[in-house]
Design a protein that fits this description.
Layout lengths: L1 H18 L2 E9 L4 H11 L5 E7 L4 E6 L7 H10 L3 E10 L9 E4 L2 E5 L10 E6 L7 H7 L10 E5 L1
Parallel strand pairs: 6-8
Antiparallel strand pairs: 1-3, 1-4, 2-3, 4-7, 5-6, 7-8
Amino acid sequence: MKTLKIFLIIFIASITAAKAQFTKAELQVSGLTCSMCSKATEKSLRTLNFIGDIKADLNRNVFVITFKKDVPVNLDQISKKVQNAGFFVNNLKATFNFDIVKVNNNAFNYGGDSYRVVNGEGKTLAGPVTVTVVDKGFAPSSVYKKYTTADKAETGRVYHISI
């Protein structure tokens, strides 16, 4: 009976967490010089199981990514795929649905990762909100240094985002 209760609690928690997710993103890649570069990056990104669709904007070196519903998104994998194609992430803006997520002290958890809102003082996070990842590998070093600080209390992967 105890095992059944634990299973039900875990099941309900996973259903709740699955509803809260990233829905889309705008990924700006630096170093793209031609349509073949763009195609190589797009092909690399399409191998990720949480990506539903990708549309490239060659004029701005931007990929508009739509994520699959109820599949956790791993932002580090996006950055690695871009780097494996020979390029760098210049900017990643993602839309996150905050309807189910509880934000405490400008932080929340999603997909096993922690997220810290670096400029969220006094802001209400509800519904779809566009956030910008300001970590190393997702933003220029000047932006990264401005927003992130080492917090000894944090363990595991912590993404720093701005609104």
